[in-house]
Design brief:
Structural class: mainly beta
Helix content: under 10%
Length: 148
């Protein structure tokens, strides 16, 4: 992830420049997912079929950790396992595993972090699901159906 941070530190171009969350003057940030060195455009986008994580930078905890009272909420996400510690290469000191609630339509939704008694919100997008089933009778890579 350090490579991803180095890439983003270079000349700003459309996607990378727009994708990064803007920090609150008090140092608080909130976002869904984070860009990686090999996959840009993940910030504030739900990724179907992959693990997704809520991230926030919330000062006021012990050492580099966020306060244990820090929580995430969203009307369309189920929020699970929290980790109250800094992450390498990601501007966050609290994270939580999230899953999209069944029946959520594509669109934009809020992700809120409650940090030190105040709420901070980012908006993330949920894209339409891609077709995941291969039509019956179609060729499959490696199954020999295309051999002559």
């Amino acid at each position: 992830m350090a490579i991803g941070a180095a890439l983003l530190a270079g000349p700003a171009t459309g996607l990378a420049q727009q994708a990064q969350p803007q920090p609150d003057p008090g140092g608080v940030t909130v976002q869904l997912n984070d860009n990686t060195a090999y996959d840009l455009g993940l910030v504030n986008k739900y990724v179907h079929g992959d693990s997704n994580v809520a991230l926030a930078q919330c000062p006021g905890g012990e050492g580099l950790k966020a306060p244990a009272s820090t929580t995430f909420s969203s009307p369309v996400l189920s929020i699970g396992k929290y980790d109250y510690g800094p992450l390498i290469g990601v501007p966050a000191n609290v994270s939580a595993e999230v899953e999209l609630k069944k029946g959520t339509a594509p669109g934009s939704y809020p992700l809120t972090v409650n940090c030190n008694g105040k709420s901070y919100t980012a908006t993330f997008s949920v894209p339409a699901r891609q077709v995941s089933a291969v039509p019956s009778g179609s060729a499959h890579a490696g199954d020999g159906s295309m051999a002559s």
